[in-house]
Design goal:
Blueprint (H helix, E strand, L loop, with lengths): L26 E7 L2 E8 L2 E2 L3 E2 L5 E2 L4 E3 L2 E3 L1 E2 L2 E2 L8 E3 L4 E3 L1 E2 L2 E2 L2
Antiparallel strand pairs: 1-2, 2-3, 2-6, 4-5, 6-7, 7-10, 8-9, 10-11, 12-13
Length: 105
């Protein structure tokens, strides 16, 4: 199935990102693609917007954000819990639903 994800390759491919010193990327980074700034969130080198509060509660935020477009990733795969949209694009008018790197609709 086609996707409008900016970084999706296929469900069998995991892309790891490394920082300037060769360590797996952690936290928030910025990049530019097609003249648009993109916010990327990583955990252990994988696209992943999830984090945890001090009391251990899951905080879900997009792993990819740019003008009119967001993507939710978990451990390097497009994913959103509870059947919610994992990709919003085209000015937030187009939605895609993904679970563990597999498009469900």
């Amino acid at each position: 199935m086609e996707t409008k994800s900016l970084f999706y390759v296929d469900s069998e491919t995991v892309i790891r990102s490394y920082d300037e010193t060769g360590n797996l990327a952690e936290g928030t980074r910025m990049t530019v693609k097609n003249d648009k700034e993109i916010i990327l969130r990583f955990s252990h080198g994988l696209l992943d917007g999830d984090s945890f509060s001090k009391d251990g509660k899951l905080i879900v935020q997009p792993a990819v954000e740019t003008e009119g477009h967001i993507e939710y990733w978990r451990e390097g795969k497009l994913h959103r819990d509870d059947g919610l949209e994992a990709v919003y694009t085209d000015g937030f008018t187009t939605k895609e639903y993904w679970e563990n790197g597999i498009r469900i609709k």
